Every structure is written in C-alpha cells, then in structure tokens.
Amino acid sequence: MAHRTRIFSGIKPTGHLTLGNYLGALRRWAEEDQHRGEALFCVVDLHALTVEHDPARLRRLSRQTAGLLLAAGLDPAVCTVYAQSHVDEHTRLSYLMECVATDGEMRRMIQYKEKALRARETAQGVRLSLLTYPALMAADILAFGATEVPVGEDQAQHVELARDLAERFNHRYGPVFTVPRATVPPVAARVMDLQDPTSKMGKSHASTAGMVHLLDEPEAVARKVRRAVTDSEPGVSYDRELRPGVANLLEILSSCTGKEPAVLAEGYAGIGALKADTAEAVVELLRPLRARHAEISADPSHVDGVLREGAARARALARPTVDAAYEAVGLMAPA
Ligand code: TRP
C-alpha cells in the first residue's frame, strides 16, 4: 500500500505539561510535523485511566492539555486535534489488537514492568488496562494508517509492537494496516529534570522542583532554572556523561537559541552566568505560549469546538480502516 505521510501522536493528560514536553515533542509537532502531511494529535485520555486517577483532575488536565496543544501552535485548520475518548474507533480496534497480541508480548513491555511495580505497592493494585495499554496504543496508530509516529525514546518499544501487530494482522487476515515507524527526536531534544539531571523531565514526576511547567509564572521558571543541580567543577564545559547538570542547561539554552551546546559552553566562565541566561531564555520562550493559552482559555467554547470538529474528522478517517479490520477477521458486516 502506497501511502503519503500521515502522522499520529498522542499525549497523556496525566500532569501539567513541562518544558520537556514542549522541547521534546510539541514544538516539533507545531513547527514541522503538522505541515508534513495529514497529521493528528490526540489527547489520549483513555490511557490516563491505566493508573490511579482522580476524575475531576483528569477532566481539568485533559482540557488544559488540549488548550496547550493549540497554544503551542497546532492549528486546527492544518491538523486534527481531538480527544481519544470522543472517537470510539480507538477502543473498537483495541479489542482486535488484543486478539492479535499475546500476553507474553504485553508483559515484556518495559513501561508495564516499571509502572506495575509501582502500582503493586498501592492498595488498588495493577489495573488490567495497564497491561493492555500497548494494544490501545497500537489501535490509536493503526486506525489512522499512520506512517510516522513522533514519540520520545521511551515510547519506541510500544511503536515497535504496533509494527509487529500490523504485520501479523496483515499476514493473517489481509493487508488492512499501514506499518508505522517511530520518529524519535535527536538526543539533545531530551530535557532532563533540573534537580536530577540523569532522569527525564517527566510530567508524572513526584517532585516538581526540577520541572518547568509550561504555565509556571516567569519568576518560578527563573527560580527553578537558577536552582538547577550542577556540579562543583570550575567553569562551563559540555560533557553529558561527566557533567549532566551543566549539559542539560546547555542543551536547554541550545534549544532556545539554536546554537550548539559546545559552542555556547565556550562563552561562559562560570555556571552563574549560564544559569541566568538559560533562565531568561526559557522565560522568553514560554512567554508567548502562556499569553496564547490565556487567550484560548478565556473562551472555553473555543477549545470545545476544536475538539468536536477534530473528533468528527478523526472518526471519518478511522472508520473505514476499522470496519475493514472487523470484516477481515471474519466478523459479519452489519446489514
Ligand atoms: N504512550 C504514549 C506516552 O505515554 C502516549 C500515546 C498513546 C501515544 N497513544 C499513542 C503516542 C499513540 C503516540 C501514538 O507518551
């Protein structure tokens, strides 16, 4: 099947979006991906139900995440922005994916092992949906015939599984699915936690001191950057292995300015000045985004409208493929 570029990615509304989400994903979606073909960006709210959650918070974060996607520059006239739970095709296809995948495959997923370990310590136990999560994620991707899936390195294994499931399905039942591939950003696009520069700045992290949230006040942003953990070496040099904290600051500044981290390092005699410049650069980077978000959230019916139209478009795109998959496995076409 010859296909033009079709891009699908999703973002889980499990926390406030961070600078890491912006530099590692949203910015590229807005500046490049949405213009490169038919592109869909989905608030994957069903995935947020796979670990303990609070309903009111989920509702709030889902709406905020959608608003931030628009504030970051995704343009509903150019791409499709919608909520996963608004389009039944995701769960319809997820069931078929569960019938193609094996339980061993699911249990091998690194994210499942890590999250299950944590969830096992809670009173509520491990939700079955945490295990079947990759089947739903494969459905997200395959329902749209996505050719490319821009994700972080941590999601590459799930996209690989989606490829396996697509190939297995096509082999068993006929050529229904396009086989997608992950497009992982260059390593420098990975923003690390400012307090713990060897782990990713993730939105579900327990402590927020090392995380810059997209909607943080400028003073808070500057404070967090200035308090970043570095090291006691003199001067500034770029070495990810030996000086992860300094390297993280240089990479953040690099993402803001477009200059190479190693080149930037040469311009600093001390860490204080690097922190000050990085703080200012991040504040300025986020300023227009915050302003657009304030405008967008002043009119909640705007986001509602975008999501409604996005869902209608997504449904129309996914429906024929999911119907074809239902028929291919031998289910009766409804009369
Ligand atoms: N699992 C992804 C994450 O945790 C989110 C996601 C869900 C996704 N479905 C997707 C990403 C489909 C890309 C394509 O970040």
Q: How are the secondary structure elements laid out?
A:
Layout: E1 6-11, H1 19-31, E2 38-43, H2 55-71, E3 80-83, H3 89-98, H4 103-107, H5 110-120, H6 128-142, E4 148-150, H7 156-173, E5 181-183, H8 218-226, H9 244-257, H10 261-266, H11 271-298, H12 300-328
Parallel strand pairs: 1-2, 2-3, 4-5
Helix pairs in contact: 2-11, 3-6, 3-12, 6-7, 8-11, 9-11
The structure holds tryptophan.
What this model shows, in words?
This protein is mainly alpha-helical. The protein folds into two domains: 6-184 and 299-328, Rossmann fold; 218-295, Orthogonal Bundle (Tyrosyl-Transfer RNA Synthetase). Helix content is 52%, strand content 7%. The protein has helices at 19-31, 55-71, 89-98, 103-107, 110-120, 128-142, 156-173, 218-226, 244-257, 261-266, 271-298, 300-328; strands spanning 6-11, 38-43, 80-83, 148-150, 181-183. The strands form two sheets. The protein has a three-stranded parallel sheet with strand order 1-2-3. β2, α2 and β3 form a beta-alpha-beta unit. α2 (55-71) packs across α11. The longest helix is centred in the C-terminal third of the chain and has 29 residues, at 300-328. It is globular and about 75 Å long. It starts with 5 loop residues before the first strand and ends in a 7-residue tail after the last helix. The relative contact order is 0.15. The model has no long low-confidence stretch (mean pLDDT 95). The site of tryptophan (TRP) has 13 residues, from β1 and α6.
